[in-house]
Sequence to fold (258 residues):
Amino acid sequence: MAKSTSMAFLVQRAGYKSENPKLALTHAIASQSVEIYLEDGDSVVPIVAFVGEGVLNCKNNQKAMEVYDITSTENHIQSALLCDLKVLICKEDLARYGISEADVPDAAAMGADMTVQVVPWEQIHNELKAADHLLFF
Amino acid sequence: MAKLTIGCFSSLVGSMSLDFAVGLAEAAIEKGHEVDFWMSGNAVMLSKKGQKSFKDYSFLDKRIRAAMDKGLNMCACEACAESRGFHKEDTVDHPKFIRKSMDWYLASCHTADRVLHIGGE
Fold:
């Protein structure tokens, strides 16, 4: 019988201050190639949620390539959206840091069907409760 | 017996989280459980062979070799290691120590009974 494992990647740290947000996203995106290790029909279903300081990763127009010569966290979020991953941002924390919901990353112009979802903490909490495994970054 | 997957992202010596993770892996192996140990981020420092023992610093090389001799599976993120200048020839030489990409960790979590993920600093 096919088995699906849900994994919640919770990002709590600011971008560029540490490697954690990028690693959360790249690990979540790795779900796209995990099948090579799994039994036929099995799958890993990730969600990525940004909370607390982690929402600071979710500002659009990041200039990481110009400043650090590295791929931006925004670009990683866009890659996640292109891979149809569910990306949640805590609405209350976003407001706390003064970031408008209009200023979060988007990948529609790149052809993504998915968009980031700015949602209340309660909804993120419910996703965490439903996940098989929690991974804190 | 169960399967435990441990992911650690904290550095060797600079943090004691890696020591805790290795200690937990040792305990689980001693109890007969299957344990996969994933290192990513700064934790790939543990993949560097040639670590030396000093009284002032953590020295995990000997302990992980003993645990691997008893069945512990260790895997370091290849990209994280290469970006830090740790190449294949620099890696701990033990048949139970491998380098893979992040999907290995996700697959291990998929088949694990429990996952303990210790994020970075």
Summary: The first strand of chain A starts at residue 4 and ends at 11. Chain A has one domain: 4-136.
